Automatic annotation (TrEMBL):
It catalyses: ATP + protein L-histidine = ADP + protein N-phospho-L-histidine. Its main location: membrane. This is Sensor-like histidine kinase SenX3. It is found in: Cell membrane. Its EC number is 2.7.13.3. It is an enzyme of class 2 (transferase). Residues 41-257 form the Histidine kinase domain. GO terms for molecular function: ATP binding; phosphoprotein phosphatase activity; phosphorelay sensor kinase activity. The keyword Kinase applies. The chain holds residues 117 to 386 of 437 of the full protein. It comes from the Bacteria.
Length: 270
């Protein structure tokens, strides 16, 4: 039947009928395997900065008489510990999101607020790379969920757009309503992503160019976090991209339904 049955119980119903109760354990077995893959990946990813920090601290010890070398190693040490912090934060975020229904106690969230905050938090990185963030026309829409998670998700998309694009280019953030969904999209003029890779980039720790990702401070978990935030909101994230022409990532989230008494005032516009 294509299922792994690990648990079967038999109930006797009278003389002639036997009822077999079989639990489909396929999902449980699959979840266990996904979890152990994740633990293996996490250990592997943690080893890189932890190993670098150990080597750098030894190098600082050895360079006791060379202030210039100490400055250099200390700078690298700082960078590696920043990488470790980002990794631990993303791992915690992802494991929280994979728990049950983190937005069960969601509230109405103004999309404009999400966009403003996500853009603000990326301003400095954008400026440091001479990239301008252009925000499109406002849409007066609300969704039901967790504002902080939605800001984190959009921030990740804008952060990627900035990190993977050449200096001097533009990143566009747009929002529109269609078919009961609010679509928030982030468009860049970066290298683009091949069709093959488009199917894989939402996997945990998957990177097209691992060196580039690490060098720019990526953890390999950004898009996976976006995907889980969308799942928690009954929405989805998708990508349109052509190599050499840039990429557009879109988060589609259900518009907040008319909430009935008390809070219906702004839920049904558009
Ligand atoms: P990372 O921390 O490596 O950026 P993500 O999960 O955010 O991890 O993204 C996975 C991979 O997808 C990245 O390593 C990069 O190769 C690719 N990617 C993501 N966003 C873009 C983009 N806007 N343009 C080109 N490639 C991208």
């Amino acid at each position: 039947f294509g299922v792994t049955v690990l648990d079967m119980r038999v109930a006797i119903l009278g003389d002639e009928y036997v009822l077999l109760l079989a639990d489909d354990q396929t999902e449980i077995v699959r979840a266990q395997s996904v979890r152990s893959d994740f633990v293996a990946n996490v250990s592997h990813e943690l080893k890189t900065p932890v190993g670098a920090i150990r080597l750098l601290s030894e190098a600082i010890d050895d360079a006791a008489d060379d202030p210039e070398a100490i400055r250099h190693f200390t700078k690298s040490l700082h960078k590696e510990s920043g990488r470790l912090t980002a990794l631990v934060q993303d791992i915690m975020e992802l494991s929280r999101l994979q728990g049950t229904d983190v937005v069960a106690a969601g509230l109405p969230v103004e999309l404009d607020r999400v966009i403003n905050e996500a853009v603000d938090r990326n301003r400095l990185t954008a400026e440091s790379r001479d990239i301008s963030i252009v925000v499109g026309r406002k849409v007066d829409a609300q969704v039901f969920g967790d504002a902080d998670l939605l800001i984190t998700a959009l921030r990740n998309l804008i952060d990627n757009a900035i990190r993977y694009s050449p200096a001097g280019t533009r990143v566009g953030v747009g929002v529109r309503e269609r078919d009961g969904m609010v679509q928030v999209s982030v468009t860049d003029q970066g290298p683009g992503i091949s069709e093959d890779e488009q199917g894989r980039i939402f996997e945990r720790f998957y990177r097209i160019d691992a060196a580039r990702s690490r060098q720019t401070g990526g953890t390999g978990l950004g898009l996976s976090i976006v995907k889980h935030v969308m799942q928690q909101h009954g929405g989805e994230v998708s990508v349109w991209s052509r190599e050499g022409q840039g990429s557009t990532f879109t988060m589609a989230i259900p518009v907040m339904e008319d909430m009935g008494a008390g809070d219906a005032s702004r839920g049904e516009d558009g």
